[in-house]
């Protein structure tokens, strides 16, 4: 007699995982300013007390940081500033949870198929 599948345990585990995403604190992420002077580049972490976003990543910021690669550089032609912002911890948790859930679903489908083939031979 085939055994019935109890869906309560997987559904409760899935709902627990989805709820845990909301428990991850929301952080703005880290912002980095890529300072390029002449042909050399350096990534500089933006200060935590700076405004959120990339508004402080300017040529003047790179020159004021006193990087050795920017020595004798003029602000107008020799310096370029580009801002990069990393994702927040919550975004990362959502992606990791998606990968875990998708991998679990694929693994359960493969195991179900293997189980059916094994019991069909008997």
Radius of gyration: 26 Å
Number of helices: 3
Count all strands and give the number: 3
Count of structural domains: 2
Q: Give a short account of the largest sheet.
A: 3 strands, antiparallel
* Helix proportion: 40-55%
Shape estimate:
rod-shaped
Major sheet: arrangement of strands: 2-1-3
Distance between the termini: 14 Å
Proportion in β-strands = 15-25%
Structural class: alpha+beta
Q: On the 0-100 scale, what is the average pLDDT?
A: 78
Low-confidence stretches: none
The quaternary organization reads as: single chain
Q: Encode the helix/strand succession as letters.
A: HEEHEH
Transmembrane segments: 93-111
Signal peptide: 1-28
Keywords: Membrane, Signal, Transmembrane, Transmembrane helix
Account of the 3D structure:
The chain is an alpha+beta fold and 122 residues long. It folds into 2 domains: 7-26 and 87-122, no CATH class; 30-86, no CATH class. The protein contains 3 helices and 3 strands. Strands 2-1-3 form a 3-stranded antiparallel β-sheet. The longest helix is centred in the last third of the chain and has 33 residues, at 89-121. It starts with 7 loop residues before the first helix and ends with a helix.
Tag the structure with descriptive keywords.
122 residues, alpha+beta, 2 domains, three-stranded antiparallel beta sheet, membrane, signal
């Amino acid at each position: 007699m085939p055994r019935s599948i109890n869906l309560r345990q997987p559904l409760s585990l899935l709902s627990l995982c989805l709820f845990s995403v909301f428990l991850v604190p929301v952080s703005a992420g880290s912002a980095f300013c890529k300072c390029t002077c002449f042909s050399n580049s350096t990534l500089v972490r933006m200060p935590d007390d700076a405004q959120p976003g990339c508004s402080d990543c300017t040529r003047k910021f790179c020159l004021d940081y006193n990087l050795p690669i920017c020595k004798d550089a003029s602000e107008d032609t020799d310096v370029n500033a580009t801002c990069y912002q990393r994702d927040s911890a919550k975004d990362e948790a959502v992606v990791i949870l998606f990968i875990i859930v998708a991998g679990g679903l694929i693994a359960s489908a493969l195991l179900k198929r293997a189980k059916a083939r094994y019991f069909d031979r008997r």
